[in-house]
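ok here's RPC5 polymerase:
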Amino acid sequence: MANEEDDPIIQEIDVYLARSLLEKLYLFQYPIRPASMTYDDVTHLSAKIKPKQQKVELEMAIDTLNPNYCRSKGEQIALNVDGTCTDETSTYSSKLMDKQTFCSSQAASNVSRYAAAIYKKGELHLTPLHGILQLRPSFTYLDKADAKHREREAANEGGDSSQDEAEDDVKQITVRFSRPETEQARQRRLQSYEFLQKRQAEEHWVHLHYYGLKDSRSEHERQYLFSQGHGLAENTELIKSPSEYLMMLMPPSVEEENDKPMAPSNVLSMAQLRTLPLADQIKILMKNVKVMPFANLMSLLGSGTDPTAVLRCVQQVALLVQGNWVVKSDVLYPKDTSSPHSGVPAEVLCRGRDFVMWKFTQDRWVVRKEVAAVTKLCPEDVKDFLEHMSVARINKGWEFMLPYDEDFVKKHPDIVQRQQMLWMGIQAKLEKVYNLLKEHLTPKKQEAQSAHPLLVTGEQRVNMAKAKVKQNYGQLEKEFQKQKAEMKSNDSSAKVDVPNIHIKEEPMSEEEPMDTSAHEGLNNGLVNGLHPAQGPAEPVNGHLPGACIDRVAQELKAFVSSTFKKQFVLTLSELKRLFNLHLASLPPGHTLFSGISDKMLQDMVLDTGCKQILVPFPPQTAASPDELKVYALWEAGDTYDQHRQVLLEIFSKNYRVRRNVIQNQLSQECGEDLNKQEVDRVLKVSFCSLW
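and the structure:
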């Protein structure tokens, strides 16, 4: 209050906003001139502007009679620029430097806070500026003088040469053909300094007429700096509170924020990272680290983070390899990108990197030459894949970067099994793309291999199960006697036939249980870092609980029915692949994870109305036994049932049939004269999965 009393308000001034010269008013800042040279001493000879660039060029006369002007220096400059000849192209026609050119440059990129003010009769009129241009002397005449000097030297050298040469020397000409320009090269060219300079030079100058300070036209234009109307409608912007008014006059500067030092793109600030959503945090961390144990990931996310939410998010951007999380290939190589080494598109890079990751799910060691031979990628790309997740060992190959994480596998068996299903789907795709052989599917034995036990064959698993049954026989017998005593004490009406109750042993048949834990075709080595002892618990004695059997049968029947209604003909191999993908989409702990054998799956196929088609494949076929078993839905209830049955009968006699034979057979059996297009439609509908 004391300060306000010491500084009283002397006068209140009304402020008006003038709009007549809005987006037309520029402020020119001239260089400092000697005190003896005033604006009256300088005459503007010409002016021109490039509107898009807001670039102005002024040509101003110099008072050569001023005592501050050095005449000898002016004559020397004119002589250097124009030489001794005087014509229309001369810069200084008077053989004296009597004019100077000024070129403009933008003084500020943001001029919204600046205005031109004029005070008259107790009123302050403001006009917003559209641009602030600083005028600086242009020395292009020096370039012209250098060019003249080089021309004179070239002429002198030409005069001293021999005049006896009747014809010019033959010169070799190199012809180059430009390659097609890629989109990335085009973007770099458009952003280059040379292109921007060329584009600015292509804009034409617009010549202006200059009016002096005391000219009548200048006096007329100066009146537009005053507000034409003092009504409220004209100055609604100024009807603001004091704080809003000051904010309009002095908005916060954006340049201050840009002055802050920027961190490199490969440096990650943990403080800024933790402000992002959890999914983005995990994606950024995995993209930077590439391979990480789950415990390390939790420590980077900070205390209080829910492990369940982290597990849900990390599965979206990473895959499990030997108990550790490895970032997915499509995260590192997004769509529409390419290799910096070979230019290979991202889709091919993702397949090659997935193959390397899949090899590490089987073994701790990978050979670089083998990967290059299968993927057909350049050595630099293959090296990048391996460096993401492994370390080179001399005379051994590439070893997986991190040790096997037993703790995570034991604590999260459902996550491990779900990842196994995903790897089975990836393996099936890789087999089709790369035509993998058995030597690629089976890992090699190495001396320095992990000390963890290898997976055993089907026969060994059966023997182990039988031994386990014999060990548990005494305990099971005691439990049965206890249950029988309880039933007698409760006077149960149900009678138990004791002789018929026995401990069922594992069948000694050649039919192995279908492997639903990513072990198919991989009888040795690590499979996603999971060992047999750490897999899902098997049912006691090979049996499921009674209530669970019905639920499993219902779920399995629903899957088989829906699958054959979409694809009427399937091989056992394709059906198992679809079933594994179906398991991968189920939540952890689902009843189908209890274990489904090949025999159970085939019996369910026959129970749902399908038939096995005994296609007579040639003996020398390279197909696997599961690919030779073909099942088809006999009656689907659609209009193609009869045609489909005829086709199945045809293929049960021969595995390869000509189209005209199929067309004739369909016409005879169905009584329809089918053309080629209709036959193709029947084949496509009936054998969509094999088409």
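+1. The first strand starts at residue 14 and ends at 17.
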